[in-house]
Write a structure and sequence with these properties.
CATH superfamily of the largest domain: Regulator of chromosome condensation 1/beta-lactamase-inhibitor protein II
Strand order of the largest sheet: 5-6-7-8
CATH topology of the largest domain: Methylamine Dehydrogenase, Chain H
Mean pLDDT: 89
Distance between the termini: 91 Å
Number of strands: 22
Number of domains: 2
Shape: rod-shaped
CATH architecture of the largest domain: 7 Propeller
Largest sheet: 4 strands, antiparallel
Order of helices and strands: EEEEEEEEEEEEEEEEEEEEEE
Length: 349
């Protein structure tokens, strides 16, 4: 061997059992000797007059997988990746850290960020599946059924737990999976947002007229909260928001429920102008297939393709020649309707 691992001996002549050997380039370390293992440290570990030659890179971060290494001047660097991995952060200690088929920060390639709440699957980011735009805020349901919102938040309508505006999308991590989302078009202090998750309705924002449906008029709420258990015999699958009222549609086309502002009869239960902070069934027992909520009116398409509207008829929003109605009225000239959308004092089919 070369030297004693436990001690260093200095003498004018070799003690008994020792011989002089000028080929050992470092008598103070038993690890540095002829035939020693070369490691990446810019030291001549094998006493051949060279440092960090071929084989030294094998000592670089031995527990890191899917990575090949290079070594120069005592510094380890990533030389290549295996197993479909990528080195996106260019930091040697973690090697090829990214799996681009599932990394939302590097989806399919380094630097392709799926964004807030994004999911990467098979090297592709989940796309927007549903857009909900309020007067001053926006929410998107991603195809992974995750919800992100941004914009004005003065009434907590983003559901972020605060009332601070967010200029970039914010992932609502506590609400997933989301299957439907809608944002109110109120331009004042009544803005709110509702979403369907797990078969129940969750709302956030202003609640002065009961538009959150939580059986209170406490306002505002700064994060999404449930309105209660499933409405009726089946769970809702679609949500539509008007100005300061909310409607939910049940799966199977059973019926629709509304709550909140009822000043123009927009709840459709015939009790206007009495507001409701809990869901009430619209009158008529209609089998509703889809809904559209406007500023102060609502329209519904039945499974038979008939169009019914209720609430204010300002500007002819109900499609009838009559006055405002607190119960659904059939729009006779609409023909067979597949879907409807409602805005401020107008309806489109």
């Amino acid at each position: 061997g070369f030297g004693a691992a436990a001690m260093t001996t200095t003498a004018c002549a070799a003690p008994a059992g020792y011989v002089g050997n000028a080929s050992d380039c470092n008598d103070t370390s038993p690890l540095i000797r002829p035939g020693g293992s070369e490691i990446c440290d810019n030291v001549d570990n094998d006493c051949d007059g060279m440092t960090d030659e071929v084989g030294a890179a094998a000592s670089c971060y031995p527990t890191v997988t899917n990575t090949t290494w290079s070594c120069a001047a005592g510094v380890c660097s990533v030389a290549g990746c295996t197993g479909g991995r990528l080195d996106c952060d260019l930091m040697a200690p973690n090697g090829c850290e990214s799996t681009p088929t599932a990394d939302p920060l590097n989806c399919g390639m380094c630097g392709r960020n799926c964004g807030a709440g994004g999911v990467c699957a098979s090297s592709a980011c989940d796309a927007p599946a549903e857009l909900a735009s309020g007067s001053h805020h926006t929410c998107i349901r991603r195809s992974s059924n995750r919800l992100v919102c941004w914009g004005n938040n003065g009434n907590g309508q983003l559901g972020t737990g605060d009332s601070t505006a967010h200029s970039t999308p914010y992932f609502i991590s506590g609400l997933s999976p989301v299957t439907s989302v809608s944002a109110s078009n109120d331009a004042g202090t009544g803005e709110h947002t509702c979403a369907v998750s797990g078969g129940n309705v969750y709302c956030t924002g202003a609640n002065g007229l009961g538009q959150l449906g939580d059986s209170t008029f406490v306002s505002p709420r700064l994060n999404f909260g449930p309105i209660g258990s499933c409405l009726g015999s089946t769970c809702p699958y679609e949500i539509e928001l008007g100005n300061r009222h909310t409607c939910a549609l049940h799966s199977g086309g059973v019926s629709a429920f509304c709550w909140g502002n009822n000043s123009s009869g927009q709840l459709g239960n015939g009790t206007g102008p009495v507001n409701s902070s809990s869901p009430v069934a619209i009158s008529g027992g209609l089998n509703v297939a889809t809904l559209g909520a406007g500023t102060d009116h609502v329209c519904a398409v039945t499974d038979a393709g008939d169009l019914y509207c209720w609430g204010t008829n300002s500007g002819g929003a109900l499609g009838t020649f009559g006055s405002s109605s607190g119960v659904p009225v059939r729009v006779c000239d609409a023909g067979t309707v597949m879907a409807c959308a409602a805005g401020p004092f107008f309806t489109a089919v």
